[in-house]
Each structure stands twice: as structure tokens, then as C-alpha cells.
């Protein structure tokens, strides 16, 4: 039997009420992401990309439709079940790094592994290997404030992959970087994700970067084209 899709969204809906006005942001999104597949989510500002990633990331409620992660219906789970699903299967990269400021690069990649129950030595070895593959072997002891924007973002990528997630959710992961640095960081991100065999759903408005991924889907007026 083939392994289940890492994500399957069926008729996903989300609307917000603002000042008495109802905005329907997602109007019935359907999407399937296969294991190891890297999908670019394109759409103009305000089209609902972040809202869609929040749904898949199981970070918020309020969505209609069905969200399945690794073959499990998340919509039917209690909050602790969703937390476990998120911890076991998902990794996150945001536009801003959100690294722990008081910990250095290697610690930022080790800590999530310790939380997940991995032994310290093994976690350190893995963190070193991931950060070296991201070109940061010479920056392991640096804290976020001692790293460039591109380096900070690469550590954030390493942290997202630390626990071998089946799916990485990335919201404008290079949106805060200049074009040249964004290209380098994206290439390293894609290489690491491919090397680990993870799938990824990457929100961006950058067509050029989207073209480097396996498939492009577009959000338009609340549905995927
Ligand atoms: N908590 C909220 N309350 C009210 N409206 C919201 C809320 N979150 C998002 N929205 C609205 O939903 C729409 C989609 O927002 P979202 O952030 O998902 O878009 P996006 O495609 O990620 O945009 P960008 O590329 O600018 O990040 C916007 O019109 C936004 O104002």
C-alpha cells in the first residue's frame, strides 16, 4: 500500500468578522501533498496564504472542512491530539527567524530534539550535521544577534528540520532577505528538505523562487487554481 498523503485538505474554509463585515478568506480549498513533495503556494498579499498555513499547522481553530495530516483527520482530534500531531509530523519556518535569543545556533537546533526525547549527544551530532550542510559549520557558537539575517534564517531552517518532520510549513521563509541571499538560503532549504525526504508547503509571492519547487498552486479568491 502506498503511504498516505502528508496533507489532504478537503473543502477548507475560513472567514473573519471585522467591524461587522464578514470576509471569506478561504472558500473551499482542496489540496493533496504527497510524501517528499515540495509545493509552492503562490498568491498576492492578503489572498490567504498564511491563513492556509495556519490551518495545516493546526495552530488555530475556526476552520471549516477537513484537514488530514499523515492520514489522520486532525479536524476530529482534541487539542492535545493536534499538539501531538504537530510535534510528531510538522516543522515550521517563518519570515522572521523566531530563534531563542539567549542560545547559540547549535543549541537552537538541539533544544527541539531534546524536547522530542532524543539523547543529548545524538541531538548535538544531528544539529552539527544539519548546520554544516547549511554552510554554518563555522557559526555554531554564535547567538542569533551575532549572525546575519541569512544565517539566522538558515538556523531557523535547521531547527524546522531537526526532528525529521514529514512536512515543513514555510511562510515567506526568505521574504526578509535580499534577492541574492534569498536565492542561496532557498537553495539550501530545498536541498536539506529533499535530502531529509520531507515534504514542504512554502508560501511566497515570488514566482521565480516558486519555480524552483516541484509544483506550484495559486490561491485566488479563496480557492486554489
Ligand atoms: N485574525 C484575523 N482577523 C481578521 N482578518 C484576518 C485575520 N487574519 C487574517 N485576516 C484577513 O485574511 C486575509 C488573508 O490574510 P493572510 O495573512 O492569510 O494573507 P497572505 O496571503 O498570507 O498575505 P501576505 O502575503 O501579505 O502575508 C486578509 O484580508 C487579512 O486581513
Automatic annotation (TrEMBL):
Q: Which InterPro entries match?
A: AAA+_ATPase, ABC_transporter-like_ATP-bd, ABC_transporter-like_CS, ABC_transpr_LolD-like, MacB-like_ATP-bd, P-loop_NTPase
Keyword terms, alphabetized: ATP-binding, Cell inner membrane, Cell membrane, Membrane, Nucleotide-binding, Transport
| Ranges in coiled-coil conformation | none
An individual GO BP term: protein localization to outer membrane
What terms describe the molecular function in GO for this protein? ATP binding; ATP hydrolysis activity; transmembrane transporter activity
**CDD domains cross-referenced by the UniProt entry:** ABC_MJ0796_LolCDE_FtsE
Report the residue ranges that make up the ABC transporter domain in this protein.
Answer: 7-225
Stated family: Belongs to the ABC transporter superfamily. Macrolide exporter (TC 3.A.1.122) family.
Q: Under what name is this protein listed? A: ABC transporter ATP-binding protein
Amino acid at each position: 500500500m502506498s503511504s498516505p498523503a502528508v496533507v489532504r485538505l478537503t473543502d477548507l474554509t475560513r472567514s473573519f468578522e471585522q467591524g461587522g463585515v464578514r470576509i471569506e478568506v478561504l472558500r473551499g480549498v482542496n489540496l493533496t501533498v504527497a510524501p517528499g513533495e515540495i509545493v509552492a503556494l503562490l498568491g498576492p498579499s492578503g489572498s490567504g496564504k498564511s491563513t492556509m498555513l495556519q490551518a495545516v499547522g493546526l495552530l488555530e481553530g475556526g476552520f471549516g472542512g477537513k484537514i488530514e495530516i499523515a492520514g489522520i483527520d486532525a479536524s476530529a482530534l482534541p487539542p492535545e491530539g493536534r499538539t501531538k500531531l504537530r510535534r510528531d509530523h510538522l516543522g515550521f519556518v517563518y519570515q522572521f527567524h523566531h530563534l531563542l535569543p539567549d542560545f547559540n545556533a547549535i543549541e537552537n537546533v538541539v533544544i527541539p530534539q531534546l524536547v522530542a526525547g532524543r539523547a543529548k549527544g545524538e541531538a548535538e551530532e544531528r544539529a552539527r550535521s544539519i548546520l554544516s550542510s547549511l554552510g554554518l559549520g563555522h557559526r555554531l557558537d554564535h547567538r542569533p544577534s551575532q549572525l546575519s539575517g541569512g544565517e539566522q534564517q538558515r538556523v531557523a531552517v535547521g531547527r524546522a528540520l531537526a526532528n525529521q518532520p514529514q512536512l515543513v510549513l514555510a511562510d515567506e521563509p526568505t521574504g526578509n532577505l535580499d534577492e541574492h541571499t534569498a536565492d542561496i538560503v532557498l537553495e539550501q532549504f530545498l536541498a536539506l528538505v529533499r535530502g531529509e525526504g520531507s515534504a514542504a508547503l512554502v508560501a511566497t509571492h515570488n514566482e521565480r523562487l516558486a519555480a524552483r519547487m516541484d509544483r506550484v498552486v495559486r490561491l485566488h479568491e479563496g480557492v486554489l487554481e
